[in-house]
Each structure stands twice: as structure tokens, then as C-alpha cells.
Amino acid sequence: MTGPGRPALRDAVVAPTLDDPVVGRLSAVVGGPRGQHAGRHWFWTPVRVLLALTALCFVLGMAQKSGCYEDTWTNGQQRYTHMCYSDLPYLYTGRGLAERAWPYSEDPDVRARYPQVMEYPVGISYWAYGTALAAQALTGWPDLADRESGPTADLYGRPDVQREIRAFVIVNALGFAALALLATWLLAGVTPRRPWDAAAFAAAPVLALTALINWDLIAVAIVAGILWSWARDRPLLTGVLIGLGTAAKLYPLFLLGGLLVLCWRQRRWRDLALASVAAAVAWLVVDLPAMISGFSQWQVFWTFNSDRGADLGSIWLVIDQAFATTISPSTINEVSLVFFAAWCLGVLVLGLRAPNRPTFAQLGFLLVVGFLLVNKVYSPQYALWLLPFAVLARPRWRDQIVWQACEVLYFASVWWYLGGELKPGGGGDAGFYWLAIAVRMAGELYLVALIVRDLLRGPSAPRIRPDVSESAVPVGR
């Protein structure tokens, strides 16, 4: 319906073929950019197209893992050469899920058989335990007495357990697909006039390649919900989702820093307090069952990350290998903390002083990437952490392609490195893997530079104003 001051819907939604140079050029193969008299399809709305793209992307990702799925990840070399590795099958037996062991059990018999506790936040542990129960229900609910009578090292090779592992992966994959669809829907709704910005998420190579490696999509979907809820001026829901996200992964906690900047500029101290308290309460409610049932097991996530040394994908690993040294975990902890604190302070100053008021996605990207640059480990699926922020903070396909190409290079390199494929013929260190780490970091810093430039000088495209809550108040510090 149109009327005075209300544009037609086709004019209200920004057409990507007219807005993005890359999309405009690519549209030549289907007839060129959107014309002045273009109509609307009765069924294929932008959101439905985005959901279809997400489904297709996810199916391609599942197909990419099919080589490992067919032999239940038993071929130790194929998982690297075919780049189809996943943590899920190994943790199913390695953390007691095959014997329905509660991750936070203090039972001496359970801990004797499984001394290594789930090293993830409680949200992931709950999900993994629930999907393990679902997989066993689908495969006949096995009698555990026979399994518990033998050594845990033999579990993975049992045919009945391998059948459960395949069911476990399928159940998780279906859950991840639902989360990816939900994230796409939420991201498309952050900016009502720009739903197509979410296409860079829906069709992302990093989504297809890394979604099934671990449980990171849980936090990714929650982060999309955080961006959506704040755009609709719902600070209480935003805080609850930040608490839930922190219960699944640590990094959503950093978004409170983004809220600090936004609320400071707009003097919305009540909303900041409401979101912060809601985040703390939601996190405590989710974590409390684990803390009560096994406090020492609950602490493992924190102690594990504090005690680990330089690991895959990190700049610390490059330094260790290149200079034939070993940086102690305590030194890495201290230096990383100082760097990240200085980085956050820089984001705070930038966010408060920038002529253009930053969006939540821009601040979220800057904060999370600062953490990842100096983190002790960079698993390939960590690119998913940045994806919702990146597609909204810098909605240009050229920039998304550059960044994701760097991530895909790292994705391939880390598996080939682990499989021994990058060893020089004459021996020595795998220098190409170091280069891949540097390229991945350069891709992230490339987006950082563009976002900072947008805030200081204004974006190259017309100003994007995704947040309803922001557009309701005058621009100011």
C-alpha cells in the first residue's frame, strides 16, 4: 500500500544490483540491474530467497564433509587431505557422550573413565549432551553395560557406536542448519530496507566449509539475535541474548562494550544498565545447573584456556616456530590481555569521537577481531564469529570476497599443515602455513581499516542506518 510520504515497497528495499558495483556487474548474466519498472514476485520475497540460499549453502557444506562421513572419520589422513575434519565424532566418544555421561558429573566412576571434561562453555555442553541422547534414541537406545565393561579406547571402532556417531553428526547438522536459517532471517531483519546485506552470510564460503567443525553456530545465531533485538530497541532482550551467547561462547560478552559506546553517545544509561543486568542474570541461570552438579568440571573451560600454550592459527605459534622458542602460557595471557585492553580502549575512543555514529555490527566486528588477532588459537570455524558482524558492518561484496578468500586460504592450509602436506621437500618448517596465518590476519585487518575509514570519513555508499533505536535520536556523541 502506498500513500503520502510512504514509498512503494519496491522503492523501500534497496536493490543490490543498483547499490553494489560487484552485484551490478554480475547481474549482466541474468539481464542486468533492476529496472525502473521491475515488479515483485508473489512468492520469492528477499527473505525467502535468502533462506533458500542458506539452505543451498548448507547442503553444499554437508556434501563437502561426505567423504569423512562415509567412513565415520576413521581415515586419519583423509580428514586433512579432503578438508572434512570435524570435532563432533571424536568428542562423542572422547567425552563420554557415547555412554550418556553428564558433562558435569562428579561421579568417581565417570571421572575415572573420562578424566578429560568437556572444555566448552555450558551452552555447547548442553547441546552436545542433548543431541547425543537424540542420536541414541534414533539408533535404538543402546545398553551401556556392555560398553562400560571395556576400555574407552575401543569405543570408536565398534560398529554400533559408529552408527550412533553418524546419527549424532546428522542430528547436529540439522540443528546447525536450523540455526543458520534463523541467523539469516534475523540478519535480514536488522536493516528492513537492506535485507540483501544478509546474502553475504547466506552464501558465505566460510559458512559452508566450517559450520560442521564444531558447535560455534549456536553462538553465531544468538549474535544475529542480539543485532536484531537491539535494532528493534529491545535492550532487555538484547541483554538476555548476550547472557545466553556468553554461556555458549565467550566472545558475545564483548558486545557489552559495543553497547557502552552506543548508549554513551546517546545518553541511554538506563538501557545499558538493563541490558547488562539481564545479561548477567541470563548467563547465571544457564550456568547454574552445571555449577551445582559439578563445579570443578564447570571450571575446566576457564582453566583449560588459561593453561594452554600457543596453538594452531595464532601469531604465537608463528613466533614459537620461526624463532625456535616456547612462549609460556602466562606470558601469552599477559601480553594478550594488555593488547586486547588497549584495543578495546581504542574502539571506545573511536566509537565516541567518530563523526559517523557507529553501528552495533561495526563495533562488534572491531571488538571481536581484536580478541582473535592475539588469541592463543584460531580454529577455522572462528571465521563464523566475525561473519554476522562483517556482512552488516561492511555490506560490500568486494570486501566480503577479499576477507573470505583469506579465511578460505587459511582453512585449506591448516588441514594440509596437520596432514603433513605443507612440509618442504628438503625438510624444515612449514613456512607456507605461517604465510596463511599472516594472510588471514591481513584479511581481517583489511576489513578493520575499511570500517575505521567509514566511521572517520563516511562510507563510499549512502549512509547505512540499520538500527531503529539509533535513527530515533539525533546524531551526536
TrEMBL record:
One of the record's GO cellular component terms: plasma membrane
Highest taxon of source: Bacteria
Location within or outside the cell: Cell membrane
Keywords recorded for this protein, A-Z: Cell membrane, Membrane, Transferase, Transmembrane, Transmembrane helix
Membrane spanning stretches: 165-188, 200-230, 236-260, 272-292, 335-354, 360-379, 400-418, 430-452
The name this protein goes by in its record: DUF2029 domain-containing protein
GO terms of molecular function: hexosyltransferase activity
Topology with respect to the bilayer: Multi-pass membrane protein
Classification of source organism: Bacteria, Bacillati, Actinomycetota, Actinomycetes, Propionibacteriales
